[in-house]
Amino acid sequence: MDPELIDDCVHCGFCLPSCPTYVLWGEEMDSPRGRIHLMKQHVEGTPLTDEMAGHFDACLGCMACVTACPSGVRYDRLIEQTRAEVEREHVREPADRALRELVFQLFPYPRRLRAMRLPLRLGAGLRRRLAPRLERINPSLAAMADLAPEPAGRVRLPRRVAAVGRRRAVVGMLTGCVQGAFFPQVNAATARVLAMEGCEVVIPPAQGCCGALPLHSGRPEQAVRFARRTVAAFERAGVDTVVVNAAGCGSTMKDYAEVFDGIGDGEWAGRARAVRTVDLAEYLAELGPAARRHPLPLKVAYHDACHLAHAQGVRSQPRELLAAVPGLELREIAESSICCGSAGTYNLFRPEAARELGDRKAERVLATGADLLVSANPGCTMQIASAIRRSGAAPIPVAHTAQVLDASLRGLGKIA
Ligand code: SF4
Ligand code: SF4
């Protein structure tokens, strides 16, 4: 852990009300300031205790504290370094180790994830009926059974999608692991929207995982391997801009150069800087509209994914894009800056806390009276949909910004 980054914290406490774990439990050591204090103790020689590791594990990595901090403390870097230290030094219980191994051998591998679609065809109803029994055996397995969505039909994306009308740009597109396996319809909508807005879209078939999951979980070596492969895939594709539609992936790719700099790899830092990563909403707002918007009579609540709002600062662009659809009424969700509890793998490793946050978010989403929830991160989509089901309220469909724009640009009148 970098002592200079730790010393940037002046202990003012401005970040406390924005921290979901502090909001839930009111414990100083489960606040950003408390965790930074623990990091300092460790750097100054206190060995990493189980209790300390517990407070670090309980952090969602949502980066709400980075947004809130007036002193510019790089909590994102600090927690990344801390997690790597925890993985090196902390001996986990065998069940925890086994679960982590399962998750890290599955989620960053698109092929393995796609193979999961087969057992998922077991039916969401049956899986969810089994969840209470699994809960007694292992709450994390119950969370997995409950969260996984109904598998979507197979979507084959071409390597290249031609621009509709005058070509305004050529961009690469990241398909992602969870997005590609569970929400291929979002990728298809993304490619169509970009094409209808005048972009030629290049989709390299062998892109793999961007490294978000290992990077945010204290596995930097695996993350760096994946980052190199991703940069190389888009270099080979001949693009200098990559559009990303999953918040967690986008924020990781935007950090590549800094990650390579951190390990003293100047060559790859330079290569990463040469391929610009941009979020879909950010890119479309920058490009400006070319295609005609058709009406969509919908009341839409927009959910801020933490890795989009806090980590990338993308808040206004998706709202502006949605609000520009004729007939669409945008509604704000109270406490929008507080995490829904998904946070990558948090809802698998810390299912109880994630559930509390999910329930809190579902309540606020339902209070908007919207008939569609829009979320730009697959993890949030699964987490909030599951919490709404649990609430017993009438389900509200969840779509990605890309799907709303796709429906409007194609004049479908409803979300496909
Ligand atoms: S992280 Fe920032 S906001 Fe929080 S206590 Fe430290 S200086 Fe204050
Ligand atoms: S990243 Fe989120 S959960 Fe972790 S300390 Fe910051 S605000 Fe709290």
TrEMBL record:
Annotated ranges, domain 4Fe-4S ferredoxin-type: 1-29, 50-81
Organism of provenance: Planomonospora venezuelensis
Function text: Component of a complex that catalyzes the oxidation of glycolate to glyoxylate.
Keywords annotated in UniProt: 4Fe-4S, Electron transport, Iron, Iron-sulfur, Metal-binding, Repeat, Transport
Cofactor(s) the protein needs: [4Fe-4S] cluster
Region forming the signal peptide: none
Entry-linked PROSITE patterns: 4FE4S_FER_1 (PS00198), 4FE4S_FER_2 (PS51379)
Cited SUPFAM superfamilies: 4Fe-4S ferredoxins (SSF54862)
Protein name: Glycolate oxidase iron-sulfur subunit
Alphabetical list of Pfam families matching this protein: CCG (PF02754), Fer4_8 (PF13183)
Keyword GTP-binding: no
Gene Ontology MF terms in the entry: 4 iron, 4 sulfur cluster binding; glycolate dehydrogenase activity; metal ion binding
Alphabetized InterPro entries for the sequence: 4Fe4S_Fe-S-bd, 4Fe4S_Fe_S_CS, Cys_rich_dom, Glc_ox_4Fe-4S, Helical_ferredxn
The EC number(s) this enzyme carries: 1.1.99.14
PANTHER family cross-referenced by the UniProt entry: GLYCOLATE OXIDASE IRON-SULFUR SUBUNIT
Spans through the membrane: none
Reactions it catalyzes: (R)-lactate + A = pyruvate + AH2; glycolate + A = glyoxylate + AH2
